[in-house]
Design a protein that fits this description.
The protein is α+β, with helices and mostly antiparallel strands. It is built from 2 helices and 8 strands, in the order αββββββαββ.
């Protein structure tokens, strides 16, 4: 009886954690588009390709060179259930050099599952083709957002 209560409690904690994560997403999404320093902005259209049709969410981080593979990058989470490709638009994206780091959150827990070497869930970087055999490098994946223009970037997912 005690084991059942503990298991139910753990499940409730995971549900509350996930709901809390969903409630914080609008804050991060707004902060990604907030422009308090009047930096010129453009529109960024992200084309995500080769998505496996399982899973529910795609987590996208827009990072500058100082933030790349560090915290905090601007976070956006989108629902992609049963889609093999998706186009997502970020309005008022700050101009400059950026990279996109994303992963396919197949189990919906908000965390990337990692194996010994490679992630267990799908992942992708902007302007990227092929596999990564060493630590990812900002300069390899960077693209430029030009102010007052529609900018396109593609992300190829790997599993």
């Amino acid at each position: 009886m005690l084991k059942v209560r503990i298991t139910v409690h753990k499940i409730k904690c995971k549900i509350y954690y996930f709901l809390l994560l969903l409630l914080t997403i609008p804050y991060f999404s707004v902060s990604a588009h907030a422009n308090p320093t009047n930096i010129p902005t453009g529109t960024l259209r992200v084309n995500i390709n080769e998505i496996m049709p399982d899973g529910q969410y795609m987590v996208l981080y827009l990072c500058n060179e100082d933030q790349f593979l560090q915290a905090p990058c601007d976070l956006t989470m989108m629902k992609i259930a049963n889609q093999t490709s998706k186009t997502f638009t970020l309005r008022d994206a700050p101009a400059g050099e950026w990279t996109i780091v994303m992963f396919h959150d197949q189990d919906g827990d908000g965390k990337m599952k990692r194996g010994l070497i490679f992630p267990k869930e799908g992942y992708g970087f902007s302007v990227w083709e092929g596999r990564i055999l060493s630590k990812p490098n900002f300069n390899k994946f960077k693209f430029t957002i030009i102010p007052n223009q529609a900018n396109d970037v593609s992300v190829l997912m790997r599993y």
